[in-house]
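Chapter review: from sequence to fold.
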Amino acid sequence: MHETLDNSSDLSALGTRKIVHVDMDAFYASVEQRDDPSLRGRPVVVAWKGKRSVVCAASYEARRYGVRSAMPAITAERLCPDAVFVPPDFTRYKAASQIARAIFQRHTDAIEPLSLDEAYLDVTENKTGLPTATLVAKTIRQQIREELNLTASAGVAPNKFLAKIASDWKKPNGLFVIQPHEVQNFLLALPIGRIPGVGKVTENRMKQVGVTLVGDLYAMELAVLEQHFGRYGARLFELARGIDHNPVIANRVRKQISAEDTFPEDIPLADCEVHIRRIAEKVWATSRNNARRAKTVVLKLKTKEFSSFTRSLTPPAPVSSCEDLTSIALALRHRVNHGPEQLYRLVGVGLSNFEFEEDAETAISEQTNSEGAEGVLLPILGELLP
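The C-alpha cell string follows.
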C-alpha cells in the first residue's frame, strides 16, 4: 500500500492521526507453547478443567475445531477431545506483557493498554524517528518476535476504530494498513459483524432491518438509525463513515473490570446462573493482573426491551476469591424485582471501587479480626438472600 498516511507533511494540522493497534496472537496459549516445546503444533486450551471453568485462550490449532475464548471448558473438550488443557499462569503472561510494553515505549509514550495482550499506540510523532507509521508497526512486530519469541499482529489507520479492524485483518502474524483515502471504499463492503462491539445478537437485529454490510448503514439516515438502535445509532452513523475521535489515552486507570454475555435467545432470570458463574470466573481471572483489589461487585442485566440496570454490593472486606465474587453476583439477583415473567437478553458481572492491595489487607485485618473474610461475607449474603 502507498504511504499516503505517513508522508503528508500537514497531516497533524488537518487532525489526521497515525494509530497502531497491536494484538498478540493467541497470547496465553502462545506463551505456553513457547515455554513447553512439547505443546507446539498441538491444540492447546488455557483453562482449568471442570464444568464451571471457561477458556482463557486457545491456540490456533485448537481454534480449527471451533474452540474460542470465554467458551465453557466442557464445550471446548467436546469440540476438541485431543486438546491439551493447561491451567493459566498469569505471572508468566504478565511478565511477557511487560516486555512487550517496554518495546512499545521505545517508540511512543502514547500507549493505551486494553489488556495484557493488546494496546493502542499513537505514533503520529514517534520517538525513534522512523519515517512512517507502517515502519513503526513493522519494527515493533520484529522486536516482539526477536525478544519474546512470540508473534503479534498490527493494524495501522487514522483512528482507533479502524486500527482495531486492521489488526484482525491478516491474523495471525500479520500487518494491515488502512490509508485515509481508502477508508470509505474499505468500509462499504465490510460485513457488519466486523465492526468491533457488534456481536451476533446485534448483527441479527441489523439483518432484520436490511443491514448486512457497513455500506447499508452508510445509506441510512441518522434518524432512522436512532429509531432502530437508540443512542448507539449515532455511533453507527459515524463508524460507517470511518469517524472515531476517541484519543489514545495513556496510563488510563481502570475504574472497573467487567465482562458480559448476550444470549442467543432471551431467558428468565432463573436461567442466568450458569452465565453468571462463567462470566465471574472470567472477570476474576482478569482482575488478577491488577495491583489493586476491588471493593464492589456489580451485576448488570439488560431486559428483552433493551432496558439496562445494575445491582451492586460493597461488602466490608474486599472480594478475595472467585468464589466470593460468584456468590455475591448470584445473590444480587434477589435485588431484582422485575417479576419471574421478565426475560433478559444480556447479563454482566463487574468489579469496581479498587484500592491498593496493601490497603485492602489492612482493611480485612481490621474488619475480620481472627474470623477471616468469609466471616464478613456470610452475613452479607444472608441479607441478600430471601
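Two observations follow directly from the output. Residues 90-107 form the longest helix (18 residues). The CA atoms of residues 237 and 331 lie 39 Å apart.
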